[in-house]
Sequence to fold (100 residues):
Amino acid sequence: MNNVTLTGDNYTLVYNALSFGTAVMLGAFVYFLTQIKSVSKQFQSGVAVSAIVVGIAGYHYYRIWQGFSEGVMNEGYRYADWLITVPLLVIELLIVLGVA
Fold:
């Protein structure tokens, strides 16, 4: 963990960017969940994996945002996110291409 010292506009910019990123990812999670049945059967599992990916990313961004507001940046959440979501994105690509 690294201690972060930002002042004024810099703090506000990073805080709002993390807040926006979290909201977008959690919004995408809800969107993908509501759209699973509206796509053809062959792509439904791909949309479900998309929902899982953005749900996981949204959670990790939320944890990063909360840590930032306390003044501590824990980079472990970012790497844990990549460790989980990158293989899922590869699986999603295989599903959409019809390989899996």
Q: What stands out?
A: The chain has one domain: 2-97. Helices lie at 8-35, 41-69, 76-97.
